[in-house]
Amino acid sequence: MSEFDLIRRYFTRPTPGTLLGVGDDAALLQPSAGKVLAVSSDMLVSGTHFFADADPYLLGHKTLAVNLSDLAAMGAVPRWATLAIALPAADEAWLAKFSAGFFALAEAYGVELIGGDTTRGPLNFCVTIFGEVSAAQALRRSGAQAGDEIWVSGELGNAALALAHLQSRLDLSEDEFAACATALYQPQPRVALGLALAGIASSAIDVSDGLLADLGHILDASRLGAEIEFAALPISAVLRARLTPPSLPLSGEELGIPPDKGGLRAARCAGTQGQELGIPPDKGGLRGVELLQRCVLAGGDDYELCFTVPMSRHDEVLRISKQLALPLTRIGRIVAGHGCTVRDAAGNPINPEGRGYDHFR
Fold first, then answer.
1. 158-166 and 288-298 helices cross at what angle (nearest 10)?
2. Within 10 Å of residue 93's Cβ, how many Cβ atoms?
């Protein structure tokens, strides 16, 4: 099978939303009247972002999902994408599954694949995604103000826990791993939330490298600091199940929000001592709350939205949470100064090892 046969068979679909789609030297796009383009690129590399034996359908999903998450953080409507792939070999069965996963998510969000490239080489993928947004309503990192509330969607820590299990840094039961693995393999981009936050949120970012690292980008851009309540964070349901006693309220429960499609509800954790968690030491010597802190604060791969809103818009965020059936949790506030302080239930600062993923550290 030639390169062009591969493209025609697995990656060519109708593109009625373009002036010219796949098949020429470049696509021709016409943004809707009154909109500007929001453009983002992400690369996924075998051995860095995924295991070489990853399920190709789920990998196709995630390849597009991480890019949709960037558009969600901008409050943009997804429209088009390009896909560049390096493949060790043209495995037709593998390509059929990968493209099926990619296009299933693309169709769900109205994304048209309008071009790209293929080459032989170590397995990796690069998507450039295009969305539309009103310039005045685009969510930016630089808009936070002192006194704003800090919110986060969904739960944090599941993807990092699943990865820790796969790396033999801790042991999860089969059911626990299954609950966490969905977040790692098949993240759900919060596009609807990003659109709903237009005109309400003062800043936003998607949590891809870890909460502290990504919130840090908002703080840097806005030239402000933050205070986070560790007890308020929407903790992984699997970690909550290991608490003794497991009696903490579920985030969103008081709002009458049903479980999400993965069957998980956001959970809160007020524990600050390692012995409160039923987690044995891992091979790196981390115990209980140390592991929890790392997964939740710096684990990455959550693809939730972290956003700030003025205190006066608090009730509007709660209404959005109900409308989308998506737990949204207030985790802290923006303050004058710089940097982010995380405090435990007693008000003492927490200094987790590492603040997020960095490819060159």
1. 120
2. 8
pLDDT for res 62: 96
DSSP structure class, residue 209: S
The domains of the chain are located at 3-133, 141-350
Cα gap 169→299, rounded to integer Å: 13
d(CA 308, CA 313): 10
**Same topology for domains 3-133 and 141-350, yes or no?**
no
Where does residue 311 fall: left (phi above 0), alpha (psi -120 to 50 degrees), or beta otherwise? Answer: alpha
Correct CATH for 141-350 of 3.90.190.20, 3.50.50.60, 3.40.50.2000, 3.90.650.10: 3.90.650.10
Q: For residue 144, what are the contacts with CB-CB under 8 A and spacing of at least 6? A: 202, 203, 218, 219, 221, 222, 224, 308, 334
Paired tokens of 143: 């808009």
The CATH fold assigned to 3-133 is 60s Ribosomal Protein L30; Chain: A; (3.30.1330)
Model pLDDT for residues 285-319, shown as the tens digit of each residue: 345 557 677 888 888 899 999 999 999 999 999 99
122 dihedral zone (left: phi>0; alpha: psi -120 to 50; beta): beta
Compute the average pLDDT of residues 166-182. 88
Angle between helices 211-222 and 288-298 (to 10 degrees): 50
- Angstrom distance (rounded) from CA 211 to CA 305: 9
**Helices 92-108/3-11 angle, 10° precision:** 40
Lookup result for tokens 């980008």: 217
